[in-house]
C-alpha cells in the first residue's frame, strides 16, 4: 500500500472516531427516561437498594455478557421460574451501561462500589460492604458479601 493511502485513511478514520466519541458522550451523559438504560455505577443505588427494602435480592454479575447470549439466557431463566424485576409493571428490563474502558477492573468495580473508579476484588468487596443505600434500605440485614457457593467473600472462585 502506498504511504499516502494509509495517511489519508488514518485522517478519515480519526475524524470518524472523534464524531463517534462525541455522539457517545452526549447519549451516555443522561440516559433518557424510559430508555431502559442506567449507568453501571447507579445500579446498586437506583435498582438493587429499592428492591432490597422489601425482599431479599440476588444480584448476578455476568461479566462480558453479549446481548444475544443475555436474551437466550433470560429465556432459559424464565422457563425455570425466575422473573425479571422492572421499575414499573410492564416497564423495560434495565440494561447497565458499562463505562469506558469496559474492562473488569473498571466496570465491575464501578458497579459494586457505585463510584467511577478502577479496582480489584478487595476494593469491590469493601465498596459493596460499605454501600450506604443498601445498608440503609435492606430489609434483610445487608451484609455486603457473597453468598454464592464456591465464591469467596472477595468474589474470587475458591
Account of the 3D structure:
- By secondary structure, this protein is mainly α.
- It has 2 domains: 1-29; 31-137, no CATH class.
- Helices cover 47% and strands 4% of the residues.
- A two-stranded parallel ribbon has the order 1-2.
- Helix 4 (104-113) packs parallel to helix 5 (121-129).
- The longest helix has 27 residues, at 3-29.
- The chain is elongated.
- 14% of the residues are buried.
Protein traits:
158 residues, two-stranded parallel ribbon, 6 helices, disordered C terminus
Question: What series of H and E elements makes up the topology?
Answer: HEHHEHHH
Which percent band covers the strand fraction? under 5%
Tell me, briefly, the overall form. Answer: elongated
Rg (CA only): 19 Å
Largest sheet: 2 strands, parallel
Main sheet strand line-up: 1-2
Q: Give the number of helices.
A: 6
Low-pLDDT residue intervals, each spanning 5 or more residues: 147-158
Q: How much helix, percentage-wise, in residues? A: 40-55%
Please report the total strand number as a whole number: 2
Which structural class is indicated by helix and strand composition? mainly alpha
Average pLDDT number: 77
- How many separate structural domains? 2
Quaternary status: single chain
Terminal CA distance reads 52 Å
Amino acid at each position: 500500500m502506498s504511504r499516502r493511502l494509509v495517511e489519508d485513511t488514518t485522517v478519515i478514520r480519526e475524524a470518524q472516531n472523534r464524531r463517534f466519541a462525541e455522539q457517545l458522550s452526549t447519549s451516555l451523559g443522561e440516559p433518557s427516561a424510559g430508555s431502559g438504560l442506567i449507568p453501571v455505577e447507579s445500579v446498586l443505588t437506583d435498582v438493587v437498594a429499592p428492591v432490597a427494602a422489601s425482599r431479599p435480592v440476588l444480584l448476578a454479575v455476568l461479566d462480558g455478557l453479549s446481548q444475544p447470549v443475555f436474551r437466550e439466557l433470560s429465556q432459559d431463566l424464565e422457563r425455570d421460574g425466575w422473573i425479571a424485576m422492572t421499575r414499573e409493571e410492564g416497564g423495560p428490563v434495565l440494561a447497565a451501561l458499562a463505562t469506558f474502558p469496559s474492562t473488569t477492573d473498571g466496570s465491575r468495580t464501578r458497579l459494586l462500589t457505585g463510584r467511577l473508579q478502577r479496582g480489584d476484588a478487595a476494593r469491590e468487596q469493601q465498596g459493596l460492604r460499605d454501600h450506604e443505600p443498601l445498608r440503609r434500605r435492606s430489609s434483610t440485614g445487608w451484609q455486603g458479601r457473597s453468598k454464592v457457593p464456591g465464591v469467596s467473600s472477595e468474589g474470587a472462585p475458591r
